[in-house]
Design a protein that fits this description.
By secondary structure, the chain is an alpha+beta fold. The protein contains two helices and four strands; from the N terminus they run βαβββα. β2 and β3 form a beta hairpin. The relative contact order is 0.19. The structure holds zinc ion.
């Protein structure tokens, strides 16, 4: 949905070349499925403030890796409304992408089961 046309997936290390159709789906808990770090910023950059329609600026990244989550906090430059986006990074696609970077240094911080997308009508 937010995948950029002509994105440099071969050279941009922030983008997982193995993204799947589950990207940006919601988990049972309502978290947004992330499959790399780049997609999280792409989503926030594409969002608009629901109050005034202005674009948002990411002002903080809160690692909640021990919960299998990553949070981005964004601020509207016009009305100063704060918005929080909580991404699931426990899923297998993200963890495999991360492990490929970390190699021997890969440590799984979240001990629960990988979250799965919620499918409608279930
Ligand atoms: Zn606003």
């Amino acid at each position: 949905m937010f995948r950029r046309r002509g994105a440099k997936t071969d050279t941009d290390p922030a983008i997982n070349p193995n993204r799947t159709a589950d990207l940006y789906a919601l988990t049972e808990e309502g978290y947004i499925i992330a499959q790399d770090i780049g997609c999280q910023y792409e989503l926030v950059n594409a969002e608009r403030c629901p109050y005034c329609g202005n674009s948002l600026s990411t002002i903080a990244q809160i690692s909640r890796a021990y919960q299998g989550l990553n949070e981005l906090v964004a601020l509207c430059g016009i009305c100063s409304e704060r918005h929080s986006y909580i991404f699931d990074i426990s899923n297998a696609v993200y963890q495999e992408w991360w492990a490929s970077f970390m190699g021997k240094n890969y440590v799984r911080l979240y001990e629960g089961e990988p979250r799965k997308p919620r499918y409608e009508g279930k």
